[in-house]
Amino acid sequence: MLPHPYCTLCTKHMETTEHLFLLCKWTKKIWTDPRLQINSTPSNITRFDRWLLEVFEKSDILPEKEQIAAVLWNIWKARNDSIFRGKTPQPTAMVDLALAQQVKFSRWQSKEGQKPINRNLPTRWKPPEQGKLKLNVDASWSPGDFSGSAAGILRDSSGTVANGFVVPIRALSPQHAKALALLQGLKFLNQTEATHMGLGVVQSSGWTVESDSSNSVDAVMGQAESSWDIKAIIEQCKEELLFIKSVKGVAVTVEHCLREANRAADWLANSHRSKNLPG
Ligand SMILES: [Zn+2]
């Protein structure tokens, strides 16, 4: 997704991260909402990451981090609604939504914290069975400007790389970035080329997609409810899965793996983000 040069909310300024999230007249209305209790309105911000760090350092007098994250997420959604659906942003309603989501998010987080870590997962990448293919996906993300890369590596039972992809993404959190990487991976599998790849006859009776994000994997497989910030992406993932099954007739299993077993995809995403690889 390429950023639009002009802010779609006000159509007057260039859409920089600082403008969109802090300085736009629409965004300012959100931050000045008395319910958020932010007394210092960002007016002369030059770097978004510095502002965010400053806010987080003062978090004893400011709202919780989750609340700020929820507000940022709603600004991003309002921007997309404005671009793709022509909707006018509603600052008051956005604060309502952010506050409601913050409550849900806190609950979801405490549940997640109690979840036991699966110690039985292998720490090294495990090849798929003969005739099957495995796609490992991961994302690399920088909090400063919300930009990142999603990557995937498709390998066969001998560990030979059959194909892969790297794409730029924009995400609000590492979790959001990893969910996007999973979606990109499923979209990649939906492309016809991914089934042929010059491997000769791959009687691929099943594909596995591996991600080290247990939140995304559990949500896509219907084993857990997705947190609000990745809900829309998870729904898209489910659609892609249905599509692969009905159109290609291939069953895809989405599985969780440890970070240690996902190093190749992690490396690919990192290299792409640090511009060592061509887009
Ligand atoms: Zn604007």
From TrEMBL:
CDD domains: RNase_H_like
InterPro entries attached to this UniProt entry: RNase_H-like_dom_plant, RNase_H-like_EbsB-rel, RNaseH-like_sf, RNaseH_domain, RNaseH_sf
Pfam families the UniProt entry points to: RVT_3
Highest taxon, organism lineage: Eukaryota
Residue ranges annotated for the RNase H type-1 domain, each copy included: 136-271
Protein name according to UniProt: RNase H type-1 domain-containing protein
Source organism (scientific name): Eucalyptus globulus
